[in-house]
């Protein structure tokens, strides 16, 4: 992280010498009037600052000292606090919000792998996605894989479909390709099947299916029925980055979420994320002062039937809250016991949890309460939540929770009775925008009426339950917080389907509060961050577009042009692009991040119209007379795809969806 001296030099273009202030009190929590004796580090002015402080909801200037907000108010109040070395940044009327906090992301695991992954997050055409895939295949050396690991849905594509296995094999006959779609399936080309060793003799694992042809040979399609373990286990067979590259990868992933205005993350653990081994890279970055997000981490059990042993061992190694404001332990979960995990795959029927769920869960919860460990529990369906609450209530009768922060993750189909039970036990609910990616699948299975409360966020808030928002990135959904904010406000999926009536949607400020102040409850940090208030940590984002003024459809396109963590720039763009320290290039040199970055911004209106027109012409549900709707040969050919007229002339086909 940059030093103050480095930042002051970088900010020289924004400096105007302010009035002198005498030395005096340095308490950052004192009132605005009392702050006149301070010498400030940084002043931001001429902005539209949303503080989320109910006493002072708007401001035009703020002062930062020693990594905290020291004064927030009008320019007439704040500007006189400048000292001879104070730096001043003109916000030029831009909207400023508290730094966003993701209450459910798998950023530690995601960071270790980010530089290896081709991200289709945000790509709105399968044609573009396949072009990216072809280019990445061409630059990836053996024995490396090309991996598209979640963060997208077929519904976001103009063509409304996934690539076929034939299309993937035509593009890449020799380089292994692994494409993960949500938690329902993975597509592997022939080279990937050979790399992982799946043959006619490979048995189906419990809860998963290896699709086979008429001769019994694997086709390359892996299906979660309904357990995603087969998808995770297959991905884990691929090459890993060496430690130095993993550090570089983690830094680039953190900078990518900084670009979207994220300054805090609660890491929910994850499959194949072992503690403490897989935490060494993030802890090394913390020791070296290179974290650019505040990170609270939960511990996720890895061994079925040995969950109690895991948590008993961990309770002797680390305690909740251990760490500092940048990196701290946050408790247990989201996996507590494997028998209580109901994977959300709305393409298949709801899984019934096994009879031993309660017997497995109770001793783990007792251990956590006895050791005063907060916990989180993955639960998609109301039926799972009902059974878990039975256990929680039983334990609470014996060992009162007494203010312990525990919560459910997801809760898409929770009913009113269970919301009230959670409120009575003092629990919370962390919601994610998974329905923005899977809403169409849910509606197809359960109907529009059932989808109207998935989840019933307003009812949760009315019941007094703490509610926070997040993404569940990187595999099941994108890490882009603005997709979540758009979903909360509009009630729409990425495919454009309206899921929720207006009564079940949030206004923009309420949605933003779930992404900032409200999420501090889930890491036991209320009052420390999440608002632009004197005394809180100086984390903020200066936005590319005004969140409160842009059309609803444009919310998902917002980024940050300046992100501050503790008052120091961790990302800069546009007029602020020179403020943040530079990163070394992504490693290795064939990394997809070097060519594409991460989240792909939507095309302009002209491009969007072209996609929509072509998709309508193609329909993407019927075969094309020229290609049989297997356009792989065209994707792999050297044809002028940037010139639609020449491209169609070469192929003799008007069904192409750009």
Automatic annotation (TrEMBL):
Keywords: Hydrolase. InterPro entries: Amidohydro_3 (IPR013108), Metal-dep_hydrolase_composite (IPR011059), Metal_Hydrolase (IPR032466), YtcJ-like (IPR033932). The keyword Hydrolase applies. Gene3D superfamilies: 3.10.310.70, Metal-dependent hydrolases (3.20.20.140), Urease, subunit C, domain 1 (2.30.40.10). GO terms for molecular function: hydrolase activity, acting on carbon-nitrogen (but not peptide) bonds. Residues 89-571 form the Amidohydrolase domain. It comes from the Bacteria. This is Amidohydrolase family protein.
